[in-house]
Amino acid sequence: MFRCMLRAKIHRATVTDSNIAYEGSMTVDEALLDAVGIKSYEQVRVSNLNNGERFETYIIPGKRDSGIICLNGPTARKCLIGDVIMIFSYGYYTEEEITGYSPKIIRLDEKNRIT
After folding, report:
1. In the chain, count of helices (H) and strands (E)?
2. I want to staple 64 with a disulfide (CB 3.0 to 4.6 A). Which of 30, 37, 60, 73 is the partner?
3. How sure is the predictor about 23, in pLDDT bands with cuts at 50, 70 and 90?
4. Which of 34, 28, 10, 25 is nearest to 89 (CA)?
5. 96: Cβ–Cβ under 8 A, 6 or more apart, which residues?
6. Quick one: three-class SS letters along 3-23?
7. How far apart are CA 85 and CA 10, in angstroms?
8. Which pLDDT does position 114 carry in this prediction?
């Protein structure tokens, strides 16, 4: 049996930009992606602390160390610049793999720097 488990989380990211004209996805500072092991074009779930919205999209890397968190295309309607969000990535694991398992979680300050 496989269980779907939280694999990675970016906690309390602040939305810095939105681009409704883009075809879709979410741009995230590449350094933050590396820190939690989220890959380009990986599916993520996003939760907005300001309005309760939850949605799925995929990640594209943004300029390293820029702090960018940009919602593109339709997802730009789910958050406002300045909203605080959580970004979750999940994976499927066997019972043996989850023994002693813990996800990779980073926490960010208001400028999207790892605390």
Report:
1. 2, 8
2. 30
3. confident
4. 10
5. none
6. EEEEEEEEEEEECCEEECCCC
7. 8
8. 98
Q: Report which residue type is found at 101.
A: Y
**Domains assigned to the chain:** 2-92 (2.40.40.20)
Please provide residue 49's backbone torsions phi and psi, each rounded to the nearest 5 degrees: -70, -25
- Asked if residue 70 lies in contact with residue 62, where contact means CB atoms within 8 angstroms, the answer is yes
Q: In DSSP terms, which residues pair with 109 in a beta bridge?
A: none
Residue type at position 65: D
Looking at every residue in the chain, the average pLDDT score rounds to: 96
Backbone angles phi, psi at 42, to 5 degrees: -75, 140
Q: Which residues are catalytic?
A: 25, 58
Quick check: pTM over 0.85?
A: yes
What stretches of the chain show up as alpha helix (H) in DSSP? 30-36, 95-98
